[in-house]
Amino acid sequence: MWQVLSVAKALSIQAHPDKELAKHLHASYPQIYKDGNHKPEMALALTPFEALCGFVTSEVSIRWFFYFANCFWISASLIP
Fold it and tell me: Most Cβ neighbours (<10 Å): which of 2, 39, 53, 56?
């Protein structure tokens, strides 16, 4: 199947199972996984664009993680 997508706005994140998992999921949950085939995808840029814009470095992610973890523990300690 061919799709032409515009990346002028953010696209949703999608994850597709590999062939083995697709078969298993279809056999186990056919009402949800209607197809037992995998869905390999490839993206080709027709014009210049930057992928993964807006992501932060692992250092920033770790800093935010500890900040929110500390906020959680402080809040939890205030509850009687």
Answer: 39
